[in-house]
Design a protein that fits this description.
The protein has 165 residues and is α+β, with helices and mostly antiparallel strands. The protein folds into 2 domains: 2-27 and 83-164, no CATH class; 30-81, no CATH class. It has helices at residues 30-45, 69-73, 113-122, 135-144, 161-164; strands spanning 2-8, 48-50, 59-61, 93-98, 104-105, 146-148, 150-153, 157-160. The strands form 3 sheets. The chain has a 4-stranded antiparallel beta sheet with strand order 5-4-1-6. The chain has a two-stranded antiparallel sheet with strand order 2-3. Strands 7-8 form a two-stranded antiparallel sheet. Strand 4 (93-98) and strand 5 form a beta hairpin. Helix 3 (113-122) crosses helix 4. The radius of gyration is 19 Å and the shape is globular. The protein starts with a strand and ends with a helix.
Length: 165
């Protein structure tokens, strides 16, 4: 959780509520998330659960978990909680999001990573830990795609993830 770059259409305007405050939206594909949820629920009802261990098979017996899938995984994803599933060719611009919540923009959509970095650095945008970052730090972060909110560095203490990567 921290900062992430999302690809958006040129004219994307993130939705706001009636008070003008951004409505947090999860990144990623809603259609993929709901497909995964439905598959996991079906397997749960057959007595299996997804394994997240590298060396396990994908599905393992759920053993003593005799309660509804929704209690384990939460409610089924809702489309209004996710960024739109735009076609790839429409995702032409770079936009920085904070993803400590589901995700709200902290920059406008920009034509290139360099333009986004310039805007973030010039505007002193919060990189996490209530600190900004330099042009070079933002550029490194953008080439990676995301950064955690905070990192601990021996001798420096807690710093923003953007600074620390």
């Amino acid at each position: 959780m921290g900062r992430e770059v999302r690809m958006v259409p040129k004219d994307w305007e993130h939705p706001k509520d009636e008070k003008g405050i951004y409505i947090p939206l999860f990144g990623g594909s809603f259609s993929k998330r709901v497909k995964d949820y439905d598959e996991e629920k079906e397997m749960w009802e057959k007595g299996f659960m997804r394994s997240y261990k590298k060396d396990d098979d994908m599905w393992i017996p759920k053993e003593d978990r005799n309660y509804p899938f929704e209690e384990w995984s939460g409610s089924r994803p809702q489309e209004q909680d996710y960024m739109p599933d735009w076609p790839e060719e429409e995702r032409t611009h770079f936009q920085m999001y904070e993803n400590v919540t589901e995700g709200t923009p902290i920059s406008p959509p920009m034509e290139s990573p360099e333009a986004l970095v310039q805007w973030l650095a010039e505007n002193g945008v919060n990189a996490g830990a209530f600190r900004t970052a330099t042009y070079e730090q933002w550029l490194r972060m953008i080439s990676r795609g995301y950064a955690p909110t905070l990192v601990g560095i021996k001798g420096a203490g807690l710093i923003s993830g953007v600074e620390g990567i």
